[in-house]
């Protein structure tokens, strides 16, 4: 007599609590209650062996009759993104060729072979049955059994991480953290291991400081571009700024005024820019990086680049080092980024203006020049880190932007005009010089994220200008998108096609939840009127408008925003999200609010008042007709940052935040990739913070969200409160309130860090996160953080910015 052996399914769930949702165990138990007694003891055995909870009940049918008895196991239920394991059994030792196949339902890739296979539950909009068949062969023929896995829509499948002030990266139970490339790590053969004591040099071949936005570019086993590779790839990361006190043995010399030692200045200059580093999964999401990878590369402020687009060759770009205005050197203060479907990286120059020395030359400048220089903040008497004082080498002289020669061809007065651009880099070709895309305008670029691409429609890029009371921009290509360009081999030539010609717009947000894109086109942009002590500015050409995009946005009446930072595109809806990090009382006074920037309140930090909009918000818009070239849009405010313990729920905590999801100063923003279930149907959104207002309660953090759509809330009028108890009302548009099912805290960073940069492998099973400037307020003798050493339990050593790789212990999609 044959013996029948049943087995169950596991979805890889590790003690997950679906807060505010019925647990799937209860659903399955009701559906299959008549079989509950049969599987009771078996569930315990499987859970012990696999370390996972069982969401299954038995349902067996036998095909073929006689001889070998086979079982495909129990029907089961799971949710999008979970790892499901199927194990079939047969009673006969003579059974051969065990195999699994999918019979019906949303197609999945079965991983493995033989009796046991697994798959990632696909993205679905409603509960969907997937039917699988297990079969074997014996002397009587083929025997098979079928089982059904019911997949429900995505949920935030983790318990919220509590706010904390610890000196580690804290993630939910069931997740692991691996520290990847850190400040100073060598990325070329023969470069010594980083000593981390201030003596290290040669940052042109080391990971730079203040790692910011990052993006994964897949590589095939043979080292060619592979957009779907999740085991080998290139990590492209920006390096925005410096914890300069830790770069030298005893801190920097004369950093505020100069003269600076040349060796110190060279190190600091080279620690800026961009890095490209090969990452590899050595098996089962065990990550490492390759020091001598063939694609490894540093792009620093000294790296040659080319100007492309309308400003190329203009007088604005001509200097003693580039007399024809076509060539430049390097990129600096690279903050957020963008990614193109043709496989290039868009890095963005943000707070570049402060690096230049420029004072005492007003008499040699025209009124127009002075207006533009002041509008962009090129006014420092020393420049950040005083590099111009380090010697006569052009590497240092270029940071002296004073008009000192007979003309612009004899000095570096125009050097500031060479910065503030979006820079396109081909990570797969280290021989190609980066290209600065001048059609996208010059500003304090936070990011440059493309909108949803549709064949035959224009290509749009959304741009934040990260400073208080600056603007939100959009660039629309002159050329319609051709999907055939996505896999072109000359990737920068594709960038020429879409990024060098088009129209730049600035956004105006109306009180009724509509908005308009105002074209910044010569002939339609009026003169910028007299503003304070600044005279009227008359635009001379389209080149003038692009170089001085801030002045043009002033002139057309765009809406000043509360520090426009990262943009992100929801690939399912095409909606665009923009983080507005914060504003102070000067930038957003009680009488200076508007519908898109509606709050003025106080979030006290200890004994200090913080009036204005200290906690920030996230706004989103949808183009009219879902057309990237539309000149109108609808908008609302998706989330408002707030302290849930103290904020007024009617006028400040407008999103109904709780202790599990309250946040302040949203900054980084990114939707999951559409190559995996987290990026489909209802894409998972990641939100990172760069906060100072809330850091007495928690270190900076990252949250996961499942957003709705524009218009899922409604109109609201709030009462703002200023100093002395003065009040004013403001109408606005709010999105649906957050719930535990739609917003949870996923990660808290180490002490004094900022969360900067987020991406996953294409399969969504590894999440990469940037940890910037831990311990930024310490000094070499008393570091205020010891991360990343502290991640492994060592409370010593200077802190270092770094990337971490985060994986689910059960192998599922991160966050779901």
Automatic annotation (TrEMBL):
Family annotation (InterPro entries): PhoX
Domain of life: Bacteria
Region (Disordered): 772-801
Biased segments, Polar residues type: 782-793
Pfam family, any one: PhoX
UniProt protein name: PhoX family phosphatase
Protein source organism: Croceibacterium selenioxidans
